[in-house]
Write a structure and sequence with these properties.
The protein is an all-alpha fold and 206 residues long. Helices cover 78% and strands 0% of the residues.
């Protein structure tokens, strides 16, 4: 019961902080928003959904030992915000990815995780997707950076699993949206949420 109450209280605080941070980033003059006139309508369910999502994740995270649970909670927090900004406005902010990456480096060092493996994952993972974009397009620069940051947090094997899961699930969802005419073949698809959700799945699977 204590873990549930603590999870709820922390989720309330993180929801308020995270949602306000998103609103601040949206309000910046240089914010690359896809739907600048629809901010209110596209974000009206953000707070309750973010709160429920964080609460459920935190209840699970509390079973992990410290300081691992702190880094897991931080990772989930950033991934949750990325899911919402990409769904709402098709944007993944560098101002989120940079601190996310820095904390990932700190976690790697603090937890004595294999640094070289994570550097390789970040460089190769981000590099492969950058090459794919240069050759075929299809995903945005934020997705490339997100994959690189996930490499820092997850390492090569886990990142490979994330990319595989996200590609399959994202591809199926994109196909369904095209068939139901929600999207056109040349429409932009937000793949960031699929990478983020796949990463969360891998985090809780390990």
């Amino acid at each position: 019961m204590t873990e549930i109450i603590s999870s709820i209280l922390i989720a309330i605080a993180l929801t308020a902080i995270g949602s306000r941070w998103i609103d601040f980033l949206y309000s910046m003059p240089s914010a690359p928003l896809s739907f600048p006139k629809e901010i209110a309508s596209r974000s009206k369910f953000r707070k309750p959904c973010l709160f429920i999502f964080l609460t459920l994740c935190l209840i699970k995270i509390f079973t992990a030992p410290a300081p691992l649970n702190f880094y897991m909670a931080t990772e989930i927090f950033f991934l949750a915000l990325i899911i919402f900004t990409d769904f709402e406005q098709y944007v993944i902010f560098d101002k989120m990815l940079i601190p996310f990456a820095i904390i990932g480096v700190v976690a790697t060092i603090h937890l004595n995780l294999p640094i070289i493996d994570r550097i390789v994952a970040a460089v190769i993972g981000g590099g492969i997707f950058l090459l794919m974009v240069m050759l075929t397009g299809g995903i945005g620069g934020g997705d490339i950076k997100l994959v690189a940051v996930l490499g820092i947090w997850l390492g090569t094997e886990n990142l490979l699993n994330v990319v595989l899961i996200a590609s399959i699930v994202g591809g199926i969802c994109a196909g369904i949206m095209i068939l139901t005419k929600i999207k056109g073949r040349k429409s932009y698809f937000a793949y960031g949420p699929y990478f983020a959700l796949a990463a969360i799945f891998i985090i809780f699977s390990n």
